[in-house]
């Protein structure tokens, strides 16, 4: 009887490790790309909210469950706000999904970032980074998503 319990426990541990490794492989094949902001609204005197869609592409054969997203938005090394997503969504295999994050920022944060915006306009490239945590399958994973926007030359 004890030998059967040991075999059963070992089989459960092996199955659990297999599932965790499969989810890890699926997360490593997940790519996140932010889209263009939309649905701007002003709340109160200083707060600005807008929707920032993030396109998630799962290039693996496993489904991923995204539980939450909590990202800081950095523009030219200046923190201008926070993007969050707090509902559960499945990312199906071999396909894109859209995560609708809500960005919260303020006029004062945007005003403090004006020198960075000016440098980006001068260099014709605006560097944006989304840094934070992603809850995937109950595990929190640190993410860093760099985005560069090529800007037209202003004359």
Automatic annotation (TrEMBL):
Top-level taxon of the source organism: Bacteria
InterPro entries xrefs: LEA_2
Positions of the Late embryogenesis abundant protein LEA-2 subgroup domain: 55-148
The protein's name in its UniProt record: Late embryogenesis abundant protein LEA-2 subgroup domain-containing protein
Organism: Dyadobacter psychrotolerans
């Amino acid at each position: 009887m004890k030998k059967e319990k040991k075999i059963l426990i070992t089989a459960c541990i092996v199955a659990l490790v297999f599932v965790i490794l499969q989810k890890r492989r699926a997360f490593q094949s997940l790519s996140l790309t932010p889209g263009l902001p939309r649905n701007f609204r002003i709340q109160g005197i200083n707060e600005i909210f807008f929707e920032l869609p993030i396109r998630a592409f799962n290039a693996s054969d496993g489904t991923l469950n995204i539980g939450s997203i909590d990202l800081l938005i950095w523009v030219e090394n200046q923190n201008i706000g926070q993007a969050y997503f707090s509902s559960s969504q499945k990312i199906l295999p071999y396909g894109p999904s859209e995560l609708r994050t809500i960005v919260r920022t303020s006029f004062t944060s945007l005003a403090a970032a004006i020198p960075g915006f000016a440098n980006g306009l001068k260099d014709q490239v605006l560097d944006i980074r989304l840094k934070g945590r992603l809850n995937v399958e109950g595990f929190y994973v640190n993410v860093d998503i760099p985005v560069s926007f090529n800007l037209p030359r202003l004359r």
